[in-house]
Amino acid sequence: MLTRKGKDRILGATIVADHAGELISQVTLAINGELGLGTIGKTIYPYPTQSEALKKVASAYRKTKLTPLIKRLFEKWLSWNR
């Protein structure tokens, strides 16, 4: 995924995988709709598909935006709920 530095808006992407056509259509939609990785990361898919890979990329991006304090708070909250 190619994004502007410090932003989540998608400028382009390269996908090399089986079923790449299924994945690239969502990226194209996000680019044309000026949607960012955050929007893709919030998308709930009805069942596991190849497009879950895009959600994982978007989620990885969103994790980079967490401050150390917020990250520690999330870790504590998640450990309490296990």
Task: Report what the structure shows.
The protein is built from 4 helices and 2 strands. Strand 1 and strand 2 form a beta hairpin. The protein has a two-stranded antiparallel sheet. Helix content is 55%, strand content 6%. With 82 residues, it is mostly helical.
Number of beta-strand segments: 2
Question: What would you call the structural class?
Answer: mainly alpha
Order of helices and strands: EEHHHH
Strand order, largest beta sheet = 1-2
Backbone shape:
globular
Key traits:
globular; two-stranded antiparallel sheet; 2 strands; 4 helices; mainly alpha; single chain; 82 residues
Offer a quick outline of the entry.
This protein is mainly alpha-helical.
Topology:
Blueprint: E1 2-3, E2 10-12, H1 20-32, H2 37-42, H3 52-64, H4 68-80
Antiparallel strand pairs: 1-2
